[in-house]
């Protein structure tokens, strides 16, 4: 049973002049297999920073705290090691790679995570099935990675990666922007197919919209770089009705 534990995580970024600015100020969160967690919060509260820090993005410096997966130190792992350990972090490969097709990229990623290259024909079958499930046009497989992808295509590709890599814990930063209702449904269905007894999901979102399709077991409200409130799925409804105002005040330091 996979367990991702985030303990008193503090993260800083360069502030653009000479110093650093602390963004995350002691985040505590545990995601276990079989659970879907939503992190919600106002813009600028540090939600994406949490995802980047767990992904190992070099711009985000962990100044203290711990992230472990089944007790293993995630922060000591390279980005590839994190993937092999069973963590899926959607923003790991957000870059445009002209000349590398979606299909080649996926095969490379699957090879890295499984430790051996899948047979071409089986891989093609697997990819076709996953793409069908996500209503992705077959021609998409030959597109250059992320080049000219629309918001919806990026999200579909993200979920396609997740389905192919079969991680144990997935961290998805749903910026939600650029997702039309159809794309939102496809992404949500992908998340719902993925979530099960052996897998855990941490879904980061600003809007409650996606939570009409994905039902979280736990909702955490983020403000000022930490979790300021927690509850069950009913908390998402409260946020939908009341917004983040009262939490925004709580988060100001
Ligand atoms: P959210 O995803 O909740 O909207 P972010 O994590 O993107 O919030 O940003 C939190 C704060 O950290 C914001 O004030 C943002 O400007 C700042 N920040 C995030 N990433 C960087 C970065 N790479 N460089 C400088 N400031 C950053
Ligand atoms: Mg602290
Ligand atoms: Mg964000």
UniProtKB/TrEMBL annotation:
InterPro entries: AAA+_ATPase, ABC_transporter-like_ATP-bd, FeS-cluster_ATPase_SufC, P-loop_NTPase. Keywords: ATP-binding, Nucleotide-binding. SMART domains: AAA. It comes from the Bacteria. Residues 4-249 form the ABC transporter domain. GO terms for molecular function: ATP binding; ATP hydrolysis activity. Gene3D superfamilies: P-loop containing nucleotide triphosphate hydrolases. Belongs to the ABC transporter superfamily. Ycf16 family. NCBIfam families: sufC. This is Fe-S cluster assembly ATPase SufC. It comes from Actinomadura rubrisoli. The gene is sufC.
